[in-house]
Amino acid sequence: MSLQNVIILVSCLLASATALQKLTELYKWSSLDYTFASEEHKNYALERGEFVPENNLPVGIEVWKNKLFVTVPRWSNGVPSTLNYIPLDVSSTQSPKLTPYPNWAYNREGNCDGLTTTYRVKADSCNRLWVLDSGTVGIGNTTKQVCPYAIHVFDLTTDKVLRKYTLRPEDTNDRTFIANIAIDIGSKGCEDTFLYASDELGYGLISYSWESNKSWRHTHSFLMPDPLAGDYNIGGINFQWGEEGIFGITLSPITESGFRLLFFHPLASNREFAVSTEILRDPKLTSEEIYHDFVVLPSRGPGGHVTAHYMHDDGILFFNLIDRNAVGCWNSRLPYEPKNLGIIDVDDEALIFPSDVKVDSLNNVWVISDRMPNHLLSKLNFNDINFRIFFAPLEAALAGTVCAGSIPYIPQEQSNYVTSKVY
């Protein structure tokens, strides 16, 4: 049986009744648990405070073949592993335990050769898993930099580390907070790969070249928050995240120029921005030289805060609308404006704070929701369902929306609202 059929079969067995129309709820948790070696091991971790269930919040997902990766940042004590996975082909429960990846030792807190905290990870077409470790414990005023920021790249076929690269001191500043990455494989193949990382609170964009094994930093005013867009109402809580700059980043398919577009947005913003990777791949360009190469797109309108987003190979952008408890879409053949932004699904209970969205190699859309504001600013009810993972076949997700239709990425000559300004 193929993995796609396994996913569909498991979803039929485990799916719960919700108001969702297209997304299927595959997994759900009141609180997270892990595949400890034994009950004794788990009890030991509980007694020593190395595992505090209520402090574990999942934020990021990625899918590679039979592995569904789930990240858990160390925002408080008691998070035993930050990078984990669920085996899709053997999981038969609605609330599966998380298995540390690649193993327990690599995720041990205080091990600066391994992982301390990661947020959103990316598997590429070269069977590599890219992970940016923030090296931090805590969140906000409690943050401690216990290890340096570092990029870890795994061979997914062997679960071995291919490379670890520590960011240079010049790549970060004393406000740096990186929660999102994008992977750019160029026309020359796997060696021609760049990682881009968004510095949300340090207001920067970092480039790393796999081939040269070097990194550098870009700055631009478009990476900063909109001072008029820092107010949020999510999960029954009103709060202000006015300092949140560049957050979600994703890449278009390769355009006729031979390069991609990087789409990005500050978290405190209702707008999307874009820049060519031709600019980001050049370490010699100064901020002054590249200022006009960045493009601003029209506003999404009120309630347009977006966390993560992901552009599929056909040029369809999927994004999480956190104000609306919804997952949206945009077909990049159409102008980026509110009337062309579709809603795939919405649920005021199940989709409170959709935190990450991905599309796998089998063209399934995956979404995780985690009630993050309630966790950070109030208190989760652990008698309720707090974390959910959903999926939907891509065509079914787009059906009936303005985004529908499998269309190649828009040719450069038609993209006068974005591409002509970038190139």
From TrEMBL:
Signal peptide as annotated in the record: 1-19
GO (cellular component) term, any one: extracellular region
A Pfam family this chain is assigned to: MRJP
Keyword Secreted: yes
Principal location class: secreted
Coiled coil region boundaries: none
Keyword Transmembrane tagged: no
Keywords: Glycoprotein, Secreted, Signal
Protein's cellular compartments: Secreted
UniProt-listed InterPro entries: 6-blade_b-propeller_TolB-like, MRJP/yellow-related
Biological role stated in the UniProt entry: Controls the pigmentation pattern of the adult cuticle and larval mouth parts.
Family: Belongs to the major royal jelly protein family.
The name this protein goes by in its record: Protein yellow
Organism annotation: Macrosiphum euphorbiae (potato aphid)
